[in-house]
Amino acid sequence: MRSARVLGALLPLALLAAGCGIRATEVVEAGEPAVVQVAPAGQMGTVLYFVSSSTASRLMPVVRYAERPEDGSGAGYGEKPPAGATKALGLLFSGPTGAERDAGLRSELPVARVKIGVELSAQGVRVALNTPVTTLSESARQQLFCTAAQARTADRGEAVTVTGPDGVIGPARCSV
């Protein structure tokens, strides 16, 4: 009886050690990473960066599309589709839409009408605001850096300097 219990206790260990018949294989190459189209063909979009409510400092990109008028002329947002760092930063300071808030996104920037000036140069993007910038949280700073750099180049690699009435932050690069 005792030997049956010992055998019963050792049987699962023996099966586990046997690996259940699964053999080891080499690494299988699956090719290049998948590439997806973010903006549907024919639509213009602006990429903004908001903070995910699920984590304290994780930024998430959001694409705001230009809306097509019903006449199919291709113009949206007035006469021209949104383009450039000035428009992107203006949208960023407006905060997330209701749908974006429902998805758990928020902004650490003050929601206000801010005067925005943008200069593009070989050294990067210089943003001038009429609101204090030195007291902004690191997440708010990254929202500015990433949105301004994305508006300039798709790889977010541009250095961004932001000036306000209280001082200067940057130059810095998007950390996302």
Provide structural commentary.
This protein has 176 residues and is α+β, with helices and mostly antiparallel strands. It is 27% helix and 23% strand. It is built from 4 helices and 7 strands. Strands 4-5-6-7 form a 4-stranded mixed beta sheet, with helices on one face. A hairpin with a 2-residue loop joins strand 6 and strand 7. Helix 2 (84-93) packs antiparallel against helix 4. The model is unreliable at 68-83 (pLDDT under 50).
Give a quick summary of the entry.
This protein has about 180 residues and is an alpha+beta fold.
Could you give the topology of this structure?
Layout: H1 2-18, E1 45-52, E2 59-65, H2 84-93, H3 98-102, E3 105-106, E4 116-121, E5 124-129, H4 138-152, E6 160-164, E7 167-172
Parallel strand pairs: 5-6
Antiparallel strand pairs: 1-2, 1-3, 4-5, 6-7
Class derived from helix and strand content? alpha+beta
Tally the helices: what do you get?
A: 4
Span from first to last CA? 64 Å
Query: How helical, in percent, are the residues?
Result: 25-40%
Sheet bearing the most strands, described? Answer: 4 strands, mixed
Strand content: 15-25%
